[in-house]
Structure formats: structure tokens, C-alpha cells
Amino acid sequence: MVKPVEFWFEFASTYSYLSAARVEDACAEAGVPLVWRSFLLGPVFGAQGMNDSPFNMYPVKGAYMWTDMERCCADLGLSFVKPSSFPRGSLLAARIAAAHGDAPWVGAFVRAVYHANFADDRDIADDAVVAAIVDEIGQDSAAVIAAATTPEGKAVLRGATEEALERGLFGAPSFIVDGAMFWGNDRLEQALAHARAA
Amino acid sequence: MVKPVEFWFEFASTYSYLSAARVEDACAEAGVPLVWRSFLLGPVFGAQGMNDSPFNMYPVKGAYMWTDMERCCADLGLSFVKPSSFPRGSLLAARIAAAHGDAPWVGAFVRAVYHANFADDRDIADDAVVAAIVDEIGQDSAAVIAAATTPEGKAVLRGATEEALERGLFGAPSFIVDGAMFWGNDRLEQALAHARAA
Fold this sequence. Notes:
The structure is a homodimer.
Chain A: E1 5-9, H1 14-30, E2 34-38, H2 42-47, H3 54-57, H4 59-76, H5 91-99, H6 106-118, H7 127-136, H8 141-148, H9 151-166, E3 174-177, E4 180-183, H10 188-197
Parallel strand pairs in A: 1-2
Antiparallel strand pairs in A: 1-3, 3-4
Helix pairs in contact in A: 1-6, 1-10, 5-8, 5-9, 7-8
């Protein structure tokens, strides 16, 4: 019995860009259902005593990360431009992806937000940029944002972030399959294999 | 012109075990020369303001690491037992691997030390255990240790650790190819590709 792969992502996370670009195709190819799980990494880092991205806290590691991103994007055929601001706030985009997690367009939205942040250096912390992205993928930004920012809409992202903490997530991207966690873009293949074997 | 892969490793490092087990075969298969570079991770972590393994500093991440090690070892067909002490001191073993880095038996020694630490839970911080390992790979432990612990022998490891800091290493395993750094067992294939393209 194939289990679904839950893809836990944060729009500010560099390595989540790599996974977001390929997870839908990879799951389809493996015959594994995909569940999009938008959450906020800030509270998860905070619970570990970190108040910034570890890539900013440890600059030597951070410098390497940007080089690694360039190489990994090249390997995957993905455009990449180092963002002029990092990490960017992702609240509205994360709320939309959480509240509309079952929408048929959620994958297109997620990929478009990552592309905006990491290939086009657009400021995804700006609500107007996020609204433009919703329109660009052919959806009605006013309606989409309204639904994602009602008290009920906001509660979806808050609940997901609390669930991430309860389930022991400590970074992004993470994959959860049948209760087992896999961390990092480099572990997507392990997660898929686990889903097929579960 | 194929460039060599410098394999920078620390015997206390879990993920270095994965690379140590496969780097010699992987280089041979790719037609890439291999250079063994033993160094100490403690001063490198210290330069980043860390006085312990990050896996101990961030326990949630550390717990995941052990699960990930189990899975990765299973994928590679490697024995694995979580060590009863972590991280273990590695000074004598690191001095031997540094001072005898060009010896034809250095690969066998490196693999045997990692196997002792991460498969057999032997205390590689104990000089008698290290001596036994040298004997087990068919070398004369008295002569090997004597050469590695002269002032000149000790200077090799000290110089390598200083070089690691100067070249921007921040963790292990790391690979350096033609001046480019690749971090982590997951990047061995990128390093090999870079060596063949250089």
C-alpha cells in the first residue's frame, strides 16, 4: 500500500526551492500521492534557540550554501539568482499555500513563489508581489487572499506550524511518510522509496 | 585534465564514515586521483563559535541524524551501531592518517577506524584501540605510532587543520577539487564530476 509523501516547505528556505520544483513530477513518476504542507520555519528555529537563519548565524556555512545552490540549480536545470534579501518574510504566501493546500493550482502557486524569490529576486514579503503571482498563475488574487486571511484561513498555517513542532521538524524542506521524517532536498528519493515500501 | 579529489575527514564525524567507506572505489571508478586529508574538526567548529558537535548543540537535529545514519548505512550496505559515546576523541588516529597520508595502507586504516567507531562501538579515543587497529590491518603499530607522534609527525595534522581553516572548511566530510569545495557525503558525486570536468 503506497503512502503519501507530505512535503513540508517554507518559502524563505533555499533548499525547499529545489524540492518544490521537482516534487510533483517525482511523486507522479513514482506513483506516490503528494500532500503540500506549508509552514513557517521561524518558530521552528526559535524552538531550537535560533533567531535567524542558521546560514546567517554561521556565515562560513552560509557562503558555501549559496555556491551549493548555484551548483544544484544548474544540475536540475533551474534558474537561480541570489536574492538581494535573505531570508524574506513569507507570511502571506505561506497562508495562501496552507489555506488552499488542496486546490488544483497549489503546486503552480508554490513553484511560482519560489521562482519569484530565488530566480527573479522579487520581494515575496510584499503582499502586492504575492497578489501579482496569484494573478500570474490565472487565479483571482482578491478571492484567494481573502479566503487565506480570514481567522479560519490564518488558523490553517498556525496549526501547521504547531504540528511541525510537535512532529519534530527542525528544518525545511522535510518530508513525512507514514510517520517517518526525511530532511532536505537530498532525501526526496529516500522518502519516495519509503512511501512505495510502506 | 582530471584533477584529484582531496577528501577531508575527521574520525568523529558520522557522515565522514559514509564517504570513507566508498571514496576510494568511487574515485577509482571515475578515474580520479584521491588525496586523503585527515584533519581535526574541533578547531574548525571552535572558529564558528561552537564548542561541541552541532548534533549535540541542536538535539532535535541530532536525533534525526542518527536515524538518517541508520538509513544511509542500510542504503550503502554498511554496518552501523550508534556509538555509546559521541563525539569520540580522534587525535592519535588523525595524526596517523595525516602523517602516513601517502602510505599504501592509509585507506584500509581510515576505513578500519571508522568501522571501529560506528559499527563496532570501539573507543577510538583509546590509544590502545588505535594501536590494535593498526596491527589488524597488518602494519607495525609501534613503528607507525612512533612516526606519527614525533614533533614532525604531529606537525602534519596541525598544519592540515590550519589549512582547513584557511581554505574555509566548516564541516566534514568535505571534498576540495581544483580549489572548489563540496561539503557532505551527498556531494561526493558532484566533486567527482567537477574533477573530471576540470
